[in-house]
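Intended use. Records like the one below are meant for learning the mapping from a protein sequence to its folded structure. Do not use them to infer anything beyond what is encoded.
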Amino acid sequence: MSGCPVFPEFRNQSALKTMQALYCEGDFSRCERYKSASKGIMPPKDLLPDGSRLPKKKDRDSIPE
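Structure written out for the chain above:
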């Protein structure tokens, strides 16, 4: 779980813990990153487990933690 490259991109630790609980510790087969990797396709760095995307870095800097 700690090896997922999207985790360091999270600034909001409560959002990160929620994603980990739902997808990493829960039903990981629902994780869009897992599904992609299982097909041999490297998921984009900004792809979240629920299939949404992280905002671009410049946009994230304006979001409060």
